[in-house]
Design goal:
single chain, alpha/beta, Arc Repressor Mutant, subunit A, five-stranded parallel sheet
Length: 235
Amino acid sequence: MPLPRQTILVVEDEAAIAETITYALQTEGFVPLWKATGRDALAALAQQPVALVVLDVGLPDMNGFDVCRELRRRHAVPVIFLTARSGEVDKGVGLELGADDYLAKPFSPRELTARVRAVLRRTNGHGAPGPVGSPPAPSGAWQHDEARCRISYRGRALDLTRNEYRLLGALLASPGRVFSREQLMAAAWDDPGAALDRTVDAHIKTLRAKLRAAAPDADPIVTHRGLGYSLREET
């Protein structure tokens, strides 16, 4: 039985460019989903899972970086930025927000599809693991009530600050995935540019203390030196 085709969300307001991208993706076996505004893209992500997002920086309603900040609060889907500005400042901002790749216009459709496949390979081809709050651990140690912004561990509700909740929620979305500090800042802070690496480390420290209070024998958050943090897949 053939594998289901992966859906790629294309967020691009210029119809001619979007048509070129969607045609290239279709010929490579993907299912493109085109949205011309950031708000429409976020609405689409809330309704269905996608494997990857191709996101233009210059959108008519929202800056592409703001769209990325918003989607990172609830989704761990890979993102490739498109921009007409190839400056290092833009590239740096994009990568700090957790973008998986960055492509400056003009680009060839073949190059884009190659980048899409490369990113999907790096993320094990899983695409979006779903919004924060998806069942994270096969052991059932975690319970996440997204409507009430409440996370419980081994039957005990955790008393979390807003940033602690968002940070732990990002880790819960993809157990085993290593998140860089920059990706966690983008997921947990309204203005990730104002946060520092040591701010993430400090919040991880307080999270570990609260988790130990709930289960003294457990240490579900793993430190990856020089890389970031992950959540144990079986805790």
